Amino acid sequence: MVKNMRMPIVGIHGIFSVQRLVDFVKTAIALGCSTIVVSKAVGAAAQNGVPEAQKVVFKSGRNMLVVADLVDIKELLDPDKLILITTEKREDIPEVAFEEIVNILRENKNIILVYPGSDTGFTRGELELGEAYRIPLVEGAQLSPVAALAISIFEIKRLQQC
To answer: pTM here?
Structure first.
């Protein structure tokens, strides 16, 4: 493992599914993320998913913050950069430049990567709260937020080793 490897804070927004939330948290922990933010958990995810996810996070010794909306993420964590990763192929949204994220992390700046928890993705208003990017090379159907998280963190870690 590379010394001084910094990881972004990761978050999931607008989550309805208990299983998707728990899978997202477990994946983030397995890939070395130390802080996970859950924004706008609703329905079963709010009632059952958040407590289950907190249990997983607590056992791992990591941190989890639950907030009402994306605005709260900006207010409470004051990131240098808030990046919203779309999980669908949209030509109007540029591909994420993982090299830029790594460079910002090397400058000891704080980045938060937020993924949509629902199939509807981010609203237009939500996309305006941060910088919107999409995962490169995605074809056709929507990528799950867990897969997008895994691709993102893997690529960031790979580039940090270079």
So the answer is: 0.94
